[in-house]
Amino acid sequence: MSDDLEIDLDDLQRRMDGAMGALKAEFASLRTGRASATMVEPVMVDAYGAMTPINQVGTVNVPEPRMVTINVWDKGLVNKVEKAIRESGLGINPQTNGTIIMLPIPELNEERRKELTRVAAQYAEHARVAVRNVRRDGMDQVKKAKAAGMSEDDVKLWEGEVQDLTDKHIAQIDKALEAKQAEIMQV
After folding, report:
1. Residue 2 within any structural domain of the chain
2. What angle do CA 182, 184, 187 make, to 5 degrees?
């Protein structure tokens, strides 16, 4: 097989892994009734005239399973951090004690748990679509190589390789979704 007819499987693998990484980040932001430092990562604080991630204005800790604390470094930003958390849509009511903001994580009711499992399923579907788009790009590379003179046997081999890579990533997404949904529904 000539070098100019090679299909870049490493690039396809990297892009599919990127979709998995994005899915894991989205799953981490879903509240499951358990405290997690990642749940406050999307919160931006108006600090020093710029929107700043919350982890750049204080230390985020999880001292107990149902509590997140944020130790704000600058006492002047405590109120702004508290306001950002209230307005973030996390549904958590912060309690301030000096420069420490405590976020008690309430129990999730059954309806909210089901809603979160649907959100998780949507995130998984977006990841599947991203993987399928990478698969389509890989198949397009194979078609171009076929037009450039790749043999039928090599075309079948490469199509199989791309499909195997896709199937592996779709299975990982399904497994991650199943685990996340079980975690959300766990009381």
Report:
1. no
2. 90
pTM over 0.70: no
Distance from C-alpha of 127 to C-alpha of 26, rounded to nearest angstrom: 10
47 inside domain: yes
Give the tens place of pLDDT for each residue, 8-24.
889 999 999 999 998 98
Number of alpha helices (DSSP H) and beta strands (DSSP E) in the chain: 4, 6
Residue 114, token pair as written in the block: 């089901």
Structural domain containing residue 67? 34-104
pLDDT in tens, 47-75: 888 898 888 999 999 988 888 999 999 89
Nearest to 69 by CA among 28, 108, 98, 27: 98
Number of domains in the chain: 2
Rounded Cα distance between 164 and 56, Å, is: 41
CB atoms < 10 A from the CB of 5, how many? 18
Q: Are strands 50-53 and 67-72 parallel, antiparallel or unpaired?
A: unpaired
Do 121 and 162 share a domain, yes or no?
A: yes
CATH code, 126: 1.10.132.20
